[in-house]
Amino acid sequence: MLRVGERVRHEIAALLSRNEIIDPLLETVTVTVPEVRMTPDLKLANVYVMPLGGENAEDVVSALNTHAKFIRGRVTPALDLKYAPQFRFFVDKTFDEYGRIDAILRSERVQRDLASDDDSED
């Protein structure tokens, strides 16, 4: 599943970089594909995307879901799978999670705890 997901991610990223999808919104934005999660039967691919800068993320995902059949037709021949997986696009929330965790680690409370651990080691 992981290997196929990585191949799907690579092929979709290549397709998006070539601007083959005719859509006014998708033509004006750069989209990254950080992750693709495949179902165990490899028939469904959940594709997580994020436009550069994070602006209009929901609109970009909606446009990609609108063009999912076109994307499927362009990507699946390169995958050499028994079944052509269906693609569902979602906004990637991991960047938000990274920011939240980073803010927690930089908080005064955590810094105070880290400083007290350093003092006790001396």
Explain the overall architecture:
There is one protein chain. 57% of the residues lie in helices and 18% in strands. The chain is α+β, with helices and mostly antiparallel strands. It has two domains: 2-91, 2-Layer Sandwich (GMP Synthetase, Chain A, domain 3), CATH 3.30.300.20; 93-122. It has a three-stranded mixed beta sheet. A hairpin with a 5-residue loop joins strand 1 and strand 2. Helix 1 (2-17) packs across helix 4. The chain is elongated. The mean pLDDT is 88.
Write the SSE topology.
Layout: H1 2-17, H2 24-27, E1 31-38, E2 44-51, H3 57-66, H4 68-79, E3 86-91, H5 94-106, H6 108-121
Parallel strand pairs: 2-3
Antiparallel strand pairs: 1-2
Helix pairs in contact: 1-4
Assign a percent range to the helix content.
55-70%
Number of helical stretches of at least 4 residues: 6
> Major sheet, described briefly?
3 strands, mixed
CATH superfamily of the largest domain: K homology (KH) domain
Q: What would you call the shape? A: elongated
Tally of strands: 3
Arrangement of strands in the largest sheet? 1-2-3
Low-confidence stretches are none
Secondary structure class reads alpha+beta
CATH class of the largest domain: Alpha Beta
Radius of gyration, in Å, reads: 19 Å
Named at the architecture level, the CATH assignment of the largest domain is 2-Layer Sandwich
The span between the termini is 48 Å
**Amount of beta strand:** 15-25%
CATH topology title of the largest domain:
GMP Synthetase, Chain A, domain 3
Number of domains: 2
